[in-house]
Amino acid sequence: MTRPLVAIEGLSKTFPGLQALQDVGFAAQPGEIVALVGQNGSGKSTLVKILAGVEAPDPGARVDVAGTVHVIHQDLGLIPQLNTVENLDLGLRHGLGAALPTRRREEAEHARALLRQYDAAFDVTVPVGQLTPAERTIVAIARALDGWERAKGLLILDEPTAALHSDEVGRLFTAVRRAAAAGAAVIFVSHRLDEVLDLADRVVVLRDGRLVSDAPVAALDHAELVRLIVGAAPQHAAPREPCGPGAVALQVRGLRGGRVRDFQLDLCAGEVVGVSGILGSGREHVGALLFGALPRAGGDVAIGGSTLAGGDPRAAIGAGVAYVPGDRHADGAVMTMLVRENVTLPNLRRLRRRAGRLDGRAERQEVVGWLERIALRPADPERPLELFSGGNQQKVVLAKWLRNDPRVLLLDEPTQGVDVGAKAAVYALVRDAAARGAAVLMASSDTAELASVCDRVLVMRDGTVSADVRGAHLTEERLVIEGLALATTNGDPCHD
Ligand SMILES: Nc1ncnc2c1ncn2[C@@H]1O[C@H](COP(=O)(O)OP(=O)(O)OP(=O)(O)O)[C@@H](O)[C@H]1O
Ligand SMILES: [Mg+2]
């Protein structure tokens, strides 16, 4: 047996009042792809941060890593103010002549070439904060995976696929397999269990900070993996009740802006409609455009029959629109504030008593109810949001907007980073909002999710709606086929 690239023994990590990891041990050989899975808050990112040297373990642990460590952190670790070229830090910048225009052109060209490996083409000179979550992910991937033919070591990917569509995932996996074949050890964190079974050689399962299983992938299947992660029989997604659509709550005609060239929709109260499509299809911009977070270049939007102006989130909120963005760090939440404050932030009015003072007890009671519904871990409303795991942060953002009983609910990647157990809770909340009369539009790169939660799904291609998939046609396979324009027959694309 070759010497392992990574060897961990007796690894524990204690945060004030919380044990994130307890006596964890495993090893990874050169060329091996090890998946690390577990529920939100089970300790995966903490383990990643310790391997990356960002966090120190409790005394007594043995953590050996031979060679260099490259990490794609769950929050990507990019600097939003810098552009793609600068974030890639291609190393051409140093020394004399770094500021020369020719040098800058060279760097931009090199960056574009790197992105082309992932079939991505976007402006490499705008700050990455202005890119979509999927585009940012590709920047982080390109950076971490550049040069693995030369350097052996440990490659760690903490939920790299959360914002990616299946064909982008395919290209990432090709690059990861190439790195492993060249002798890297890979640790891959994901909540998408099909990906885990597809990519990994071995799967390590954490539950509440303890290692509960370390097994070759051949010994596992989807059901067994779910059982190991959840530690009990899994919940199933909420059954989809056919909703007799009420009145049209959101009408959209000829919407243009960002990657969207022409988008139409009649969304009824009580309906859950999905938006699918690969990166660049426009899928990723529809929600922000409708909400006004992205400027509108043209088209008409009406809420309950009244015209809604573009580029004005305040007017949208006033008309009863709620928007849960895909990027919780950028605009979904205030990380330094408590969970309780984040949940009640958008609507404190309801909790004000006559003199305008806040009713603290009512607030706490209501928040505790929400924390149960979203299965927050730990269920502590008085903890700052930044101390929660990524998936738990996303659930808090969702609760914050659902609490307002919106007339129109716009969701971007609502379960990004949410674990298999809590996903069911999120789906139930979404269906529940629709049952109470909300019109829900949900854009997602997760085709399985769309197929299981939505009443119908609009597939976008090249900025326009290319298919409206519903009824018996609404399967994950169909969405992938339509999104990639692989359809050999016309299916039933019924445009509005
Ligand atoms: N700096 C910190 N201070 C206090 N507690 C923390 C800190 N970082 C993480 N934790 C806690 O440690 C636990 C493990 O968090 P971690 O981020 O490792 O979970 P995870 O498995 O990556 O979850 P997810 O799937 O949601 O990303 C959580 O309960 C989290 O709240
Ligand atoms: Mg994590």
Automatic annotation (TrEMBL):
What positions belong to coiled-coil segments? Answer: none
- Give the keywords, sorted: ATP-binding, Nucleotide-binding, Repeat, Transport
**Superkingdom of this protein's organism:** Bacteria
Q: Name one GO molecular function term.
A: ATP hydrolysis activity
Ranges for domain ABC transporter come to 6-233, 245-487
Name of the featured protein: Sugar ABC transporter ATP-binding protein
Question: Which organism is the protein's source?
Answer: Solirubrobacter ginsenosidimutans
